[in-house]
Amino acid sequence: MKGRNLFVKQPISSGTEGTGKHVLKRHLGSTQLTSIGIGAIIGAGIFVITGQAAANFAGPAVLISFVIAAIICVFAGLCYAELAAMIPISGGAYSYSYVALGELPAWMIGWSSALQYLAAASAVAVGWSGYFISLLKDFGISFSSALTNTPIVYSAEIGWHMSNSYFNLPAALLVLVISILISVGIKAATTLNNIMVAVKLITIFLFIVFGAFYIQPSNWVPFIPENTGVFGEFGWSGILRAAGLLFFAYNGFDTVATLAQETVNPQKNMPRGILGSLGVSTIAYIATVLVLTGVASYTLLNVSDPMSVALNIMGPNFVWFATIVKFAILAALTSVVLAVLLAQTRVFFTMSKDGLLPKRLSHIHPKFQTPTTSTAIIAIGAIIIAGLFPVDMLGQLVSLAVLIVFAIMCFGVLILRYTQPNAIRPFKVPLMPYIPILGIACCLGQTLFLPLTTWAQFFVWMLIGLVVYFKFGIKHSNLRKLTK
């Protein structure tokens, strides 16, 4: 078999819905897509990582870090919007790579996306578990740590080792419940997501409004704390390091691109959903971090609940709001898990339709009109990962996978502009070719801040993917059969 056949490409016109048992029902408009995107983006980033980034790396200038991360995401988001409007089929980055780069790169992107979504859902579920247990303690309910923490942990000093826990049961149960929900139907899932998104946006809005009256401008001085002499600890190097950490806070808008076949008028609504969710989330992040660092000194924010620190400073009149914040955080994290698992099921669904994964994964339930087999398999994987592995390891894997995928999406836009210049593009990236080139450079540059252990884990996953492709995918590819 000739090596060039590894790069056989799907034509843009192949992006059809399919027929019969492989058809997904169209329900989603731009508002629902934007809500799903916000649900996937606003989560642990704004409620947890903001405080840690400010306290350890950037100080009040974490605001600049958020802006830098947002700009990088805008580069990628614009490229996603062009591809989503041009190739409105499920599968997101996988489908776009199949058209722009060929089958083997598409497989690798699909496999990398699987890691991104599985690790993201699991990481957020682990974070949800911690907040859930904390909230129960506020009401005098406690559980054994053996069933609420992960048994496998990692530290730079001693490496991988076992804790005294057996399994993170709350995290696993969350994944199970969400998986059942998205199996029953996307309409029910999006309704719940809309409610949770509303709850967390209202909570953030109230925090901003209440906190604005308690801002002490002295907390913003110095706005950029002096570097300690160590790269990444304050100063401009700290701002850049914090931007790399906060990139995880923007992870999620790409999930919108995986829902094209369930979207009404995807050529218009996909770009609106992608850019709309990114815009709303960025405004929420910047406003929140201004209030947070204005009310509380950044030196106090290296905690898992930085908003609670600010609320305590605001006084006893806001104790009731602190409890509401915890409920909002649970809603925020739940909506992230929902959106990410929903995206992963659609990636496997599309890969299965193309013959690169077993056909059973693209089977649509006759009653619910959802890919239940794909959902079940992904749920099992996410339950195992969430129950066993720590959030920090999973978060770093998500960051690496998403940065690589984003860089390749920017590259794909460049390739298609030159190889298929006459293709219909309902939405076009402005300032070509500078936006995609900047996206590629920024995303790949951010990967250099991630540890070697994360790179090693990523390469192991990709090697497993190559084995699966050459043992199964290459033999069953529908496109390959057509081009013989």
Can you offer a commentary on this structure?
This protein is mainly α and 484 residues long. The chain has one domain: Up-down Bundle (Amino acid/polyamine transporter I), CATH 1.20.1740.10. The chain has helices spanning 30-41, 44-58, 62-86, 93-100, 103-138, 169-184, 186-212, 235-250, 266-295, 306-314, 319-353, 372-388, 391-419, 434-447, 452-476, 478-483; strands spanning 152-155, 159-162. A two-stranded antiparallel sheet has the order 1-2. A hairpin with a 3-residue loop joins strand 1 and strand 2 (159-162). Helix 3 (62-86) runs parallel beside helix 8 (235-250) and helix 5 packs across helix 12 (372-388). The longest helix is centred in the first third of the chain and has 36 residues, at 103-138. The protein is globular. The N and C termini lie close together (10 Å).
